[in-house]
Write a structure and sequence with these properties.
about 230 residues, alpha/beta, Rossmann fold, eight-stranded mixed β-sheet, 7 helices, 10 strands, globular, binds NADP nicotinamide-adenine-dinucleotide phosphate
Length: about 230
Amino acid sequence: MDNPVVVVGGTGRVGRFIVQGLLERRESVRVIGRSAHRARRELAPGAVFRQADVRAPQTLGGALAGCSAVVYGVEPGTEQSGPDRPETTLCHGVRNVLKAATADGNRPHVVLISQLHATHQGHPLNAYGRLLSWRFAGEEALRESGLPYTVVRPGWLIDDRSAGHRVRLHQGDQGTGQVARRDVAEACLQALYTPAARGVTFEIFNEPGVPFPSWSEAYGSLAWDRTPVA
Ligand SMILES: NC(=O)c1ccc[n+]([C@@H]2O[C@H](COP(=O)([O-])OP(=O)(O)OC[C@H]3O[C@@H](n4cnc5c(N)ncnc54)[C@H](OP(=O)(O)O)[C@@H]3O)[C@@H](O)[C@H]2O)c1
């Protein structure tokens, strides 16, 4: 890509795989997170860390200026009120990042890590500060932004392959399952380089079987949310 890729939450467990993959592709990578200590401990050499909080727009500006793409993978708080309620990161944070990334007229591709059940407002998970409602609101903010985007809804994240080696992409927010963090990261990375991944929302799980041969085919089989964005 011509300009840096920004990974918001790039010091996290999924984010670190994304950063690694981008560096292997020789991309220029900026990582946003709150903890410089965590960045020192977790971040691969080569990525540039920018300390910022998605809940505080004034901290974001320079970190997102002029980027080619953004991946957003921020873990929400689960309080019912206050700064650690899900709304602050899952909705306001997404809006703040979109605003900062487009302030100079830039139009980066934005990949948002959301979650399975984002459309199921009656799900028990929504008892945690209306987590799912705010996930969906963040998704909608992105879908309505007019930017090229991809919304990835992982099932339950795990760190091993116990749910199987095959990746399954679904649409319609049905079913349930687990997925390896490494595979979610790969889906985000591949989305950045695959035109068919633009303008789609999908769930991702693992299942037993061999890995599928082609991400572009897998993305090509998905339905667009709306008219494709350029
Ligand atoms: N757990 C599941 O089963 C599950 C299922 C579906 C989707 N997801 C979602 O998948 C994504 C990746 O998960 P993960 O396991 O990789 O999460 P993680 O390891 O907890 O990493 C979260 C990242 O977000 C950053 N972050 C948190 N609050 C922030 C803020 N206010 N401003 C800027 N950065 C902030 C953290 O850095 P600092 O703490 O230094 O800020 C860290 O880099 C998350 O969005 C998660 O909610 C999880």
